[in-house]
């Protein structure tokens, strides 16, 4: 069961239709406070939450749900592309972001990816500890790549995140192994080709 929290009736209907198409049941809440009250750990596999809402905004809602369940995947729906906002949501426990206007293919892909990651965690197959992958850092790398319209080199990513070149390299390798990131080789007029990375 997916919980969709959004004050816009049209968006609730659209997202519910997308969930139906993906084969997931969904129920809705009209604002953050109602959504947090409606959320039940173990019953809801994933939460989709809007940023701008009456009563509680998305940040407050994410914080409240995360207190109830530290593992349920939470995807934020927003028109705001600011990196600072992504950081604030990540700090409160959001896992991913989907930009409005909602694109069905993008949202379906993100729901599948986050359910897959949650399943791995539930099965104890997560590589976070084994491979030295920190969940917060992983979210930062993914959030940065999500904001980019073009593939990025390791140097470009490292300049925009508070982590070292080696750390970015390690996390990108992990995301490539997980099938979340694709490597593209770019050939310039001279020198070796540069690898660039893009979120799938």
Automatic annotation (TrEMBL):
PROSITE patterns the record matches: RESPONSE_REGULATORY (PS50110)
Segments forming domain Response regulatory: 1-115
Keywords, ordered alphabetically: Phosphoprotein, Two-component regulatory system
Sites of 4-aspartylphosphate modification: 50
Entry-linked Pfam families: Response_reg
Organism domain of life: Bacteria
Stored PANTHER family: TRANSCRIPTIONAL REGULATORY PROTEIN DCUR-RELATED, TRANSCRIPTIONAL REGULATORY PROTEIN DPIA
Protein's recorded name: Response regulator
Source organism: Pontibacillus chungwhensis
